[in-house]
Write a structure and sequence with these properties.
Layout lengths: L6 E8 L4 E5 L7 H19 L5 E5 L2 E8 L3 E8 L4 H23 L12 H20 L5 E5 L1 H8 L4 H9 L1 H9 L6 H8 L3 H13 L3 E9 L5 H10 L3 H10 L9 H8 L3 H10 L5 E6 L11
Antiparallel strand pairs: 1-2, 1-5, 3-4, 4-5, 6-7, 7-8
Helix pairs in contact: 2-5, 2-8, 3-8, 5-6, 10-12
Length: about 300
């Protein structure tokens, strides 16, 4: 099995065809059999696509994603057909940067042997575990969680060559629209309304950002303090319809600042959209406690 991301193999090679590094999370080595035709295709298409663009070749059952680095290196993924290519491009660039950072001196030698890079297999394995964990968590998010950029890390990663360029190239204007909205104040559902983008597109962009470790995700846990005269007076002022008043009454016992919105929705058998709409009408009478969703920490490797 190649996992949720569909990655079968990761390979680094010289443009001459000399293998530099190979790792497969599923223990295969198919890429070697494809290299001859693959390199021919790269030479043929180089003038059309430009050296710094992540590219791909598709064939029955699989796809090759590849990225040139410098004058004579190629970084390659062999993935399942239909795998999430935009997220995989972010991962390929991330692994490429990691490899180059660690082995700048070694790859510049006149004689390069694959065994010199074996230590990177452990890093690759840890990285793939991290990527799989990220995608598993984020792809299962509801629309009622709150994303927030980690400003300091975002500024650092933005200086990495190609990060923002690739994000904007893959998602166009949508990337800027989402970046402006993920400020830790509104859920994905509201980002969708404000930008006109669908849930899947926003999730893809968040996955891309999460691969680089620059976004955090928070559960929304509503808090309603014990009813008092002011609370009841507020209800009278806004005049909730009978159905919405019933939803609020059912939800109040669970609005303790610890229980996430989807759990309250399930316990009260109310759609999460309707529940959120009612609670939002309550304005400042409902406090939103944000609790971070723990994902795997981004691996940090020492060269």
């Amino acid at each position: 099995m190649s996992g949720r991301l569909g990655i079968k193999e990761f390979m680094v090679l010289k443009t001459s065809g000399l293998p530099v590094f190979h790792y497969s999370p599923i223990g295969t080595r198919q890429v070697d059999d494809l290299l001859s035709g693959f390199l021919t295709a790269i030479t043929s298409f180089a003038s059309e696509f430009g050296e710094r663009t992540v590219r791909s070749l598709s064939f029955e059952g699989s796809e090759l994603l590849y990225e040139p680095a410098g004058d004579d290196l190629l970084f390659i993924f062999l993935v399942d057909a239909g795998a999430p290519s935009k997220v995989l491009r972010a991962i390929l660039r991330d692994l490429s940067n990691r490899f180059l950072l660690r082995y700048t001196a070694e790859i510049s030698k006149s004689i390069v042997e694959e065994k010199d890079f074996d230590a990177f297999k452990q890093q690759a394995r840890k990285s793939f575990d991290y990527y799989e964990g990220i995608v598993t968590v984020i792809s299962n998010l509801s629309s009622y969680v709150v994303p927030k950029l980690n400003g300091e890390l975002y500024q650092q990663v933005s200086t990495v060559h190609g990060f923002l360029d690739e994000l904007h190239r893959d998602f166009g204007r949508a990337s800027n629209q989402v970046l402006r909205r993920i400020d830790g104040t509104i859920p994905i559902a509201e980002i969708s309304v404000k930008t006109g983008l669908d849930h899947e597109t926003i999730i893809e962009i968040i996955e891309y950002l999460a691969i680089w470790g620059v976004v955090e995700i928070f559960k929304m846990c509503p808090l309603i303090k014990s009813s008092d005269e002011r609370f009841d007076a507020y209800l009278d002022i806004i005049g909730l319809p009978r159905r919405e008043f019933g939803i609020l009454n059912d939800a109040k016992p669970y609005c303790d600042g610890r229980t996430p919105l989807p759990v309250i929705s399930n316990r009260t058998e109310t759609s999460i959209e309707e529940l959120y709409g009612v609670l939002k009408k309550m304005g400042n009478q409902v406090q939103w406690v944000l609790r971070i969703i723990q994902v795997q920490r981004r691996p940090v490797f020492v060269g």
